[in-house]
Specification:
Elements lengths: L2 E3 H7 L5 E5 L8 E13 L5 E12 L8 E2 L2 H4 L3 E5 L4 E5 L1
Parallel strand pairs: 1-4
Antiparallel strand pairs: 1-5, 2-3, 3-4, 6-7
Length: about 90
C-alpha cells in the first residue's frame, strides 16, 4: 500500500475512508492506520501522463525524512521500476 505524509492529508482536508492494520519494518506490533482516497498522476520522460484516478493510501508521519510519500506495490504493479544502484537513481516506465 502506498503512503503519503499526514501533513499532505491535513492540507488537503481529506476525510478518512477506512483503516488498515499495517506492520512496518521497524515495528514489533501492527498498528491501525487511517486510509484516504487520492488521485495520483505521474509523468514519464516523454511527458506522457500515467493517471491513477482512485488510489487508497495510508497516511503517516514522514517528519524529517527526505520524502513525502512511498509508492507501494499497488502503484508499482502497473509499471516497470528500474533501480540503478551504482548511480542511486531509478526510472518508472508505464
Amino acid at each position: 500500500m502506498s503512503c503519503v505524509d499526514q501533513r499532505i492529508v491535513e492540507r488537503l482536508d481529506l476525510d478518512p475512508v477506512g483503516e488498515r492494520l499495517i506492520l512496518t519494518p521497524g515495528a514489533v506490533v501492527a498498528q491501525w492506520w487511517p486510509t484516504y482516497i487520492i488521485s495520483l498522476m505521474l509523468w514519464d520522460q516523454q511527458g506522457r501522463k500515467h493517471d491513477i484516478a482512485s488510489l487508497e493510501v495510508c497516511a503517516t508521519n514522514f517528519f524529517q525524512r527526505p520524502h513525502e510519500g512511498l509508492l507501494g506495490r499497488d502503484v508499482l504493479g502497473s509499471c516497470r521500476f528500474n533501480y540503478n544502484g551504482p548511480y542511486t537513481s531509478f526510472t518508472l516506465e508505464f
